[in-house]
Design brief:
heterodimer; A: about 375 residues; alpha+beta; Butyryl-Coa Dehydrogenase, subunit A, domain 1; Butyryl-CoA Dehydrogenase, subunit A, domain 2; Butyryl-CoA Dehydrogenase, subunit A, domain 3; three-stranded antiparallel β-sheet; 11 helices; 12 strands; globular; disordered N terminus; B: about 375 residues; four-stranded mixed β-sheet; four-stranded antiparallel β-sheet; about 15% strand; Alkylation response protein AidB-like acyl-CoA dehydrogenase (chain B); AcylCoA_DH/ox_N (chain B)
């Protein structure tokens, strides 16, 4: 066995240990009471500080930052599994945003830290030179946990139209607090007049942007696609369990052919969405990243509606309540499919790119996407 | 947490390397006018094309060299088949033999059958048909009634097979027939035989399909004699063999690329500046197709490792057929044309017409959507 094989094996082992650790922490902390307390749709929103501390002490915020930059240096495909696990468990914290935000910032040459970080959706914020740095101008909305995180990562543009990646300390005051359909905080923040040093304004890495899509929006879509896979698996798993446990007309629901076919259809959507998200995971840091992410967000977003609908139909009235945990998956699916660009927006981008190149170029593009020689 | 055995690992470089040669072959065929992509599909029977593909080394890739094959991996065959599909090549004269009959004979046939038939398959000179369905046995394959009775070194077959694609042009059928009692699970008493279509006792009745093409047939056996050496697998083992054969039949890219050329024509017809509706729907189809390509490559990899991924294969076919069925329905909403089989010079109208009339078969052949969903449900632990 060569040294490289040893290194790969050691890397695999670290990846396994990190995933086990996440599993344990989530199982230990995410009680129904905590999940309910953090659900803005039902109750006052809480920031589960103990859980964040436990996750941060395990180094997880820097999971995808290279070891040379003091991160864990997980493979992106493993980080994707970590994020899916967070989606599966309905983790009410922006760990997924922090993991990819810190990795993107690090890839842009910035010094990543383990503090909670959020990604700002909604396109570039205007910036202008200021005494010893830059000043921002604009209000940002729908920022995940924007009022609770330490810093924000956002797409910015200067007066010449040049795009920038900006990290900024989150302003202490929230202009407005909304929640998505899952009760996760989505805050409005006024950044006008906020200043940052030149160190906090960087060029995004080339692989993370393209086709008019800025980097934060692209990695935001990537992270939501991975989270959706976790929520899709949770929804399907719950429906499979329920169909086998629930008896009607003297037999389990699972024995009815109509139910079997609905579940088979849902499984097809979950498998296709996972395959698309797998591809995007494998393309992190690669020139195919934006297109693969577009495909993953589009395919997972499409699956979300179908699988949530089937999940609820199988669960009957029980699934339509806060008493059954199904809503933790389905309300997230209905939220996440529209965040950082809806499936329709990403489909439109894919369609425009494909039509611009013509029919003959489509097959080589598909082969290259899968890692082949197009 | 339910997970499927799909992975996004790229195909090995030595496998990808096979792409260049198959593309060069297909480009030359197209440029020579040997086929017009939007008019043909993988069921189109073109004996001359298959002979040239065989001579160029693209058939029988996984067959050992001793039987005239090329001893390459299943993944190389996967790359070659998806390139043929994407090009719209007319593969009907070798597809069935290459995909399932040949591999089945290689695994379970007699030495005599292997020596007599496999080298001809590899040369692209020997076409096969599938002898499974019967007039009263479609999805319910265990209800097969065509019977073979032992007579010395021969078996004597009486009965009929139906929906036999290209039976009037193929050299052999691989037929599933009854040789004994079904038993309590209904899966007993079935055996597979290689049927020589040129031998006495076989007659073929054409059945025209929706577009008026003659691909389907009904095949009648009257005291047809087949030597025992043409038996494939043990007597009574037919059900297991056919299940294995269907795993190969169901998981390939032919389950979602049947109308790929319509998608190509659609993109060209829309042009470089789509409106929003055209862009959204085209992007949706491309996202679905990309996921399917990833899934089918994963299944090919599992099959190559000797794993038979029943559920994943069924998922590829079910999701894939759904995609194939949707393409013409979406295409007609994006570009307002009237489909036609005789719209000379308008490739999009012609492709749309051809696919519209072929699409119902996509969710029937190789196992109906409903049968497939039953297979998936079993894999999910529901039955």
């Amino acid at each position: 066995m060569s040294r490289m094989d040893h290194a790969v094996e050691a890397g695999d082992m670290v990846d396994g240990i990190v995933l086990d650790q996440v599993e344990r922490l989530l199982a230990q902390h995410l009680t129904p009471a905590l999940l309910a307390a953090c659900d803005g749709a039902v109750d006052a929103t809480a920031w589960p500080a103990d859980l964040w501390t436990a996750l941060a002490e395990s180094g997880l915020p820097l999971a995808l930052v290279p070891e040379a930059e003091d991160g864990i240096g997980l493979a992106a495909t493993t980080a994707a599994r970590l994020i899916r696990r967070c989606g599966w468990a309905a983790l009410p914290l922006p760990l997924p945003e922090t993991v990819v935000g810190a990795a993107l910032w690090s890839a842009a040459g910035g010094d990543a830290n383990a503090d909670a970080l959020s990604l700002v959706p909604g396109g570039p914020v205007r910036i202008a030179p200021h005494t010893d740095g830059f000043v921002l101008d604009g209000r940002v909305a729908q920022v995940p946990w924007g009022g609770s995180v330490a810093s924000l990562l956002l797409d910015a543009v200067d007066a010449t139209g040049e795009p920038h990646l900006v990290r900024i300390a989150a302003p202490g005051t929230i202009r407005d607090t909304h929640h998505n359909l899952a009760g996760e905080p989505r805050d409005t923040l006024d950044l006008t007049g906020c200043t940052v040093s030149t160190d906090e304004v960087r060029a995004a890495p080339g692989w993370a942007t393209g086709a008019g899509v800025p980097a934060v929006e692209a990695v935001g879509a990537w992270v939501r696609a991975q989270q959706m896979v976790g929520a899709l698996e949770s929804c399907l798993g719950s429906a499979l369990d329920h169909a086998q446990e629930r008896q009607q007309f003297g037999r389990p629901l699972a024995k009815f052919q109509a139910i079997q076919h609905m579940l088979a259809e849902a499984a097809g959507h979950v498998a296709a969405a996972s395959a698309a998200a797998d591809l995007a995971a494998a393309c992190w840091g690669d020139p195919r990243f934006v297109l693969a992410t577009a495909i993953a967000k589009a395919r997972c977003g499409e699956a979300a509606g179908h699988v949530a609908a089937i999940g609820h139909q199988i669960h009957g009235a029980m699934g339509f309540t806060q008493e059954h945990p199904l809503h933790r998956a389905t309300r997230r699916l209905w939220s996440w499919r529209d965040e950082f660009g809806s499936d329709a927006l990403w489909q439109e981008r894919i369609g425009r790119a494909v039509c611009a190149c013509g029919g003959a170029a489509l097959w080589p593009m598909l082969v290259r996407l899968r890692g082949g020689a197009g | 947490m339910h997970s499927f055995r799909f992975s996004a690992e790229p195909l090995p470089p030595e496998v990808e390397a096979a792409r260049a040669s198959i593309r060069a072959f297909l480009d030359a065929e197209r440029e020579a006018g040997h086929f017009v992509p939007h008019r043909t599909s993988w069921t189109t029977f073109d004996a001359a094309f298959s002979r040239r593909a065989g001579a160029a080394g693209f058939i029988g890739l996984t067959v050992p060299e001793a039987y005239g094959g090329h001893a390459r991996s299943g993944l190389v065959r996967f790359v070659v088949t998806e390139e043929m599909l994407a090009a719209g090549a007319p593969c009907g004269a070798h597809w069935i033999a290459d995909r399932q009959s040949g591999p089945q004979i290689l695994r379970h046939g007699t030495e005599a059958a292997k020596r007599a038939i496999l080298p001809r398959i590899c040369r692209g000179e020997c076409a096969f048909g599938i002898g499974m369905s019967e007039p009263n046995s479609g999805s319910d394959l265990a209800a097969v009634r065509t019977r073979a009775v032992r007579d010395g070194d021969d078996w004597v077959i009486n009965g009929s097979k139906i929906w036999t694609t290209n039976a009037h042009q193929v050299d052999y059928l691989l037929a599933l027939v009854r040789t004994g009692e079904p038993g309590p699970d209904r899966h007993g008493g079935l055996t597979q035989f290689i049927v020589d279509m040129a031998a006495p006792g076989v007659t073929v009745r054409p059945i025209l399909d929706l577009s008026g093409h003659h691909e389907f047939n009904e095949v009648f056996f009257t005291d047809y004699r087949v030597p025992d050496a043409m038996r494939v697998g043990a007597e009574g083992d037919g059900w297991n063999l056919v299940t294995e054969e269907l795993a190969f039949e169901r998981s390939g890219p032919d389950r979602f690329l049947s109308d790929y050329r319509l998608l190509v024509e659609l993109v060209d017809r829309i042009g470089p500046e789509p409106d929003r509706f055209q862009a959204v729907e085209t992007g949706r189809m491309v996202a679905q197709l990309t996921a399917l390509l990833g899934m089918s490559a994963s299944v090919a990899r599992l099959l190559d490792q000797g794993i038979v991924p029943g559920v994943e294969a069924a998922l590829v076919k079910d999701v894939g057929n759904g995609f194939e069925r949707a393409v013409p329905e979406i295409a007609r909403r994006l570009v307002p044309v009237e489909p036609s089989l005789s719209a000379q010079g308008d490739a999009f109208r012609e492709a749309l017409g051809g696919v519209t009339l072929r699409a119902p078969s996509f969710t029937l052949r190789g196992g109906t959507r409903e049968v497939l969903r039953g297979v998936i449900a079993r894999g999910l632990g529901l039955r």
